[in-house]
C-alpha cells in the first residue's frame, strides 16, 4: 500500500451515508491498486477508526464486498480480509453527456498537470525517485488484465511526490471517475504502447526537474486518452 494514497482514501467518511461511503472508499482502494489483489486490508478495528464509523458498519461493508467478489475472509493465525486475486469485471459506466465527460477530463487535466509541475520543481528524495521508477516499470510490464490498476498507481505516485498531500485524495477521486469511463472502452494495444512512452517522458522530466517538459508530456498524455474517450463515448 502506498502511504500517501492510503492515507487519502482511509479517511473519515460522511456520517449520513456511512455504509455507502465505506463501501465506496474500500472499492476505490481496490480498483486503484492501493491494496493489491491477494493483499490484506487493514483490520476491522483499524478501518473503523480510520473511517470514523462503527465496526458493524465496516463488517457490513466487507460482507457485501465479499458477496460481490472483491474480498475474501481468511481464518487462522494469518487470517483477515484479503482482496481477491481475480476481481470482478468492471461494469460499463452509465451513459454520460458530452458536457459531463468534458467535466471529468477537464478536472483531470487541472489536477494531474499541476501534480507533475509541482513534482518537477521539488528536490525529490531517493525514496521518491525510486517509487516513480518502480511504478513506471510495473505499468510498462503490465498485461491487459492489470493495466488500468497499475496505470492508476503510477498516476497516484505523481500526486504523492508533488509535495501537496491533500492533492492525492483529489487525484484518487478523479481517477476513479476517469476509470469508470476508461472501463467502458476497449484497451487498444497501440494506445498502450504510446501511453507507456509518454509515461516514461513524464517520469524523466520530473526526475530532471524540468517543470515545463513534465507538464507538456502529461498534457499530451491526457489529450490522447481524452480523444479516445470522446470518440467512443461522446
Outline the fold blueprint.
Blueprint: H1 3-9, H2 18-31, H3 44-51, H4 55-67, E1 71-74, E2 80-83, H5 98-120, H6 126-140, H7 147-160, H8 165-182, H9 189-208, H10 211-233
Antiparallel strand pairs: 1-2
pLDDT < 50 stretches: none
The CATH homologous superfamily of the largest domain is termed GntR ligand-binding domain-like
CATH architecture descriptor of the largest domain:
Up-down Bundle
Share of residues in helices: 55-70%
Q: How would you sum up the global shape?
A: globular
Query: How many individual β-strands?
Result: 2
Biggest sheet overview: 2 strands, antiparallel
- The percentage of residues in β strands lies in under 5%
**Which fold name is given in CATH as the topology of the largest domain?**
Four Helix Bundle (Hemerythrin (Met), subunit A)
Order of helices and strands: HHHHEEHHHHHH
CATH class categorisation of the largest domain: Mainly Alpha
Report the average pLDDT across residues. Answer: 90
Category by helix and strand content? mainly alpha
Number of helices: 10
Number of domains: 2
Rg, alpha carbons: 18 Å
Question: What strand line-up does the widest sheet have?
Answer: 1-2
Distance between the termini: 35 Å
Amino acid at each position: 500500500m502506498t502511504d500517501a494514497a492510503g492515507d487519502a482514501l482511509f479517511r473519515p467518511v460522511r456520517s449520513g451515508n456511512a455504509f455507502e461511503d465505506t463501501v465506496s472508499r474500500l472499492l476505490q482502494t481496490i480498483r486503484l491498486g492501493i491494496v493489491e489483489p491477494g493483499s490484506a486490508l487493514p483490520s476491522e478495528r483499524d478501518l473503523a477508526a480510520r473511517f470514523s464509523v462503527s465496526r458493524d458498519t465496516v463488517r457490513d461493508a466487507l460482507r457485501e464486498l465479499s458477496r460481490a467478489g472483491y474480498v475474501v475472509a481468511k481464518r487462522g493465525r494469518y487470517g483477515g480480509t484479503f482482496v481477491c486475486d481475480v476481481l470482478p469485471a468492471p461494469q460499463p459506466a452509465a451513459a454520460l453527456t458530452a458536457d459531463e465527460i468534458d467535466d471529468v477530463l477537464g478536472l483531470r487535466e487541472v489536477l494531474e498537470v499541476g501534480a507533475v509541475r509541482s513534482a518537477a520543481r521539488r528536490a525529490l528524495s531517493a525514496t521518491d525517485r525510486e517509487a516513480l521508477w518502480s511504478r513506471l516499470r510495473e505499468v510498462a510490464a503490465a498485461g491487459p488484465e492489470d493495466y488500468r490498476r497499475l496505470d492508476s498507481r503510477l498516476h497516484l505516485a505523481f500526486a504523492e511526490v508533488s509535495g501537496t498531500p491533500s492533492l492525492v485524495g483529489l487525484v484518487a477521486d478523479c481517477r476513479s471517475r476517469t476509470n469508470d469511463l476508461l472501463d467502458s472502452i476497449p484497451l487498444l494495444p497501440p494506445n498502450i504502447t504510446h501511453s507507456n512512452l509518454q509515461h516514461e517522458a513524464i517520469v524523466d522530466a520530473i526526475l530532471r526537474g524540468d517543470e515545463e517538459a513534465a507538464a507538456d508530456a502529461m498534457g499530451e498524455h491526457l489529450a490522447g486518452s481524452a480523444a479516445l474517450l470522446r470518440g467512443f463515448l461522446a
